Amino acid sequence: MASFHSDEWRAICDKFNNAQNLTEVESRNDPENDPFRSKYKARELLREIYCSLKSLEAGDGEQDADGGESGDQLPTEQPVDDQKEEGVFSRGFSGDSPAGKRVAKLGAVEYFLGVNHVDTEELSAGQEHLMNCMKLLERCGVSSENVSLFINVRNQLGILWAGRDETEMAQEYLEKAESIYQRYMKEDGTPPTDMTEYFSAEENLLTHQERIKRFELAYTHTMYYLAQVYTNLGQKERAATYCHCTLQRQLQLNQFNPMEWALNAAALSQYYIPKGRYMEGRHCLAAATVVSGLAGEVPSEAVAQESEAESERREQLRQKRAEMARCWIKYCLNLLQDAKKLLEDNIGELDTDRQDELRRARRRQEEEEEKGRKSALLFGSEDTFDSIASVEEKVMCLLPLDFTEARSVFLVGQNYVTQAKEYYQMDGYVTDHIEILQDHSALFRALAFFEEDLERRCKMHKRRVDMLEPICNDLNSQYYLMIRRQLMFELAETYSDMMDLKLTLANRQADAQASDSHTIKKFNHLCSASAKFFQMFLDSLCSPEGKPPEHLEEEVLRPALVARFRVARLHSKLISSSPAVQLENLDSSLQNYKYVVQYCEAHPEAAAAVETELELSKEMVGLLPLKINRLKARMAANN
Partner of 56 at 20 to 30 A CA spacing, among 126, 342, 349, 447? Predict the structure, then answer.
């Protein structure tokens, strides 16, 4: 090949630098009606470089490095990269030899042409050039001169095939890139030549540190793409591991967008939390909170109005921080709900024996937490560890065992509810706003479980009613039918819980106040309100003419039958001094119990969804007629 210092070679290097500038800088300013103008110019320069390299080669009397022109008989469906891992390290001539370096230069041009075509949405042409690069690299083994190219071309092919939903093909390329990196680092590990250095003057070559950074960044991209591939393949544990490694490497390399990184870390927490891995989930969220702070403060509304760019930045920051707040809400809610499941007895109340047992085990659990932290994949450098730890200290990662601990978790969750609602307001974000309210309600419900004072517990449920009932009544059922049904059912259950609490309180009282008119009126109000919302739910399933469905769809089967069962129970509990009203209530109760039994007889497959309710309904269908007949007999005798 011609001398590195020849005028012709310097012209090639200048063209390459111009092509890079057009691609990475000038293309950002291309007009909307010609979005790829700069990249098309870069492509022409790359083609000229390729022709010049072939000409230099021919002038030196060398054999064509690729054995043919670009695009000849290229494989397009199966990767040429099917050799064993050992092969890419040993096959052909050395990557450090003159011939190997010539192949690397031609391969690099094919690679950049491939990326150029993919960027301009010409995927078939892009694949062709990338496969040309692969074909060239087949002729030599991996070395410090070409390992970066080996990995980058496989990354690009992985992205290309993933974009076509050919996930397994993408997986093959990316896993090969991963194995090449690991093998190279094990057997060599020296800072490898970056592809751009093939066309750089000696005085412009990268430092060892910059080479390492670019190489490690390429491998970080491999990790990132593999995380997505494993997600699409349903390999969630593996995907989470690769996502965690990607985020850690991005911090180490200082190559990340703060808000994007924070959102990815917060999203990763949502994998850990449902699995009960609260230490990892909390760490992800705390790191997300700290890193998001690097994006700066949200511009004030006044500043945002002065600049379109600042206005857009303000909206993005507000939205992303609201999304992170919602992830924190889920953390607190799941922590409380898991603690409730662990501590409740067979009737849903606090099991004090279990509580004492877990308290005794708490010391050992806290000691193991530190060991777990050392084995977990932690984020950040020494500079950020303290900041992350300070955020983590604000909320526990062990399951709360009493009201005091549960309340501390609740307050953190409620604080993030307030933050999330500041952005997701009812005007413009109806669905999101209501979901946040439902989470807030669920936080109150979980906290109420730990409250021993029944009056205070009842007030917590009243807070739930106050936040949900106005929304339920105001929502347009035509557009938000499913959401209204959710709210109706939750309100019905909440009123029912309050009724049961009032009944328990009345039974505990030893004086005559237990049955005074005020207590009875309050009890009946809660009972009627619960029945009303259950009936609203059932009415929402009816046809426009008000006819109940003959067949209940699977998604509403259990809720509908449970609602019928609960309405029957509620009507039988209403207190009245009037025998006629009592008779009316008992008859309504009987009809609803009969509906559950008759529906399950007509649709045997439904019985499995409501086994307990069906058994009790059958029992009540047998008992209530006797009670009704006795009442009728007393009424007749009195008349």
Answer: 126
